[in-house]
């Protein structure tokens, strides 16, 4: 049986597309297949050969300029000069591990923790979001004495053994851990419930009860607060509180995976979880905190972390190294000095308004939703039935690529375009993106 994946196998280049490539591109794809593992995937039926980036823009080998509406890892913009300078200066002085004293990790941690609720008062560092979530699961299990982890139906939390076991978005070829349970996503567009928060809390309780029935003790609920892989589900604000209350009532902890919604992206708050007025027990971050430099973090309530750290030493060789901390500190400074959280809120609201106008022109648009510069654009065959249109979504990403706009799809049906540009995205870019969507849907007859 073929494996299914929304984040790897959709919007991807396949061998049958090779015949339509120009000679130079075909040479590169052939070389990749010979020297890289078969697990890798390229975006698009006609892959893009990128050679340069600046801010929200990318350029290919032929000199064509693209609008990047997908890459959140370069959170404040591709090749931001502040990050380049900070990394360059620190690299010329020292780069080593955290078993020596160094001011950078301490100074950065103080600044970072100042952005979180007071109860979150400890930090540990790794190199990737996978490592951060891996450690978070270990801490959750140490604190609760349980092993069971609940995630949303299409969640993606990493590629380590522990995190791939709680990442259904990796596809049916990647087995979930026996201690993992999936909860239906809090999709306000498709769930007919008078109180989405209460509905979602009940869904979590059902999975906790199922764990008990199978002799599994509940450890925690791990979620990206904007439910990105589930199709970008940001609203209504505050709906997560009842779910977190259920988690705590059952002896578990809430782990907020902030790799995607954190660092001002939603505009409404610095952290995605803060939009919902909740205080997580653990917070995980990833490479966007360093604008692509390998750095990640685990932020924690001290008494929760103590259940793990009082007994188990933890050492991540280059997690929190001075160069990574220099990059992360530069990102934090830029977000503050350039007002990127407010920028995301204002520009994101204008973009959302323009995207909503497209619904009057194209019946294939079922829903447009988002927070700040994080928007889900859902395609359907019929608005009344809300039947997902995955084929259209994939064709639309290809058309957008032809109009030099780069994005991809998400959601359990693969029918939601995930519009998540670097925070350098400007109001002037809205016309390019919205115009390309309008033209592409018109060209597709939808």
From TrEMBL:
Protein name, UniProt field: Aspartate aminotransferase family protein
Taxonomy, superkingdom: Bacteria
Cofactor: pyridoxal 5'-phosphate
Keyword check for Transferase: yes
Molecular function, one GO term: transaminase activity
Swiss-Prot/TrEMBL keywords: Aminotransferase, Pyridoxal phosphate, Transferase
Family: Belongs to the class-III pyridoxal-phosphate-dependent aminotransferase family.
Coiled coil segments of this chain: none
Pfam families listed in its UniProt record: Aminotran_3
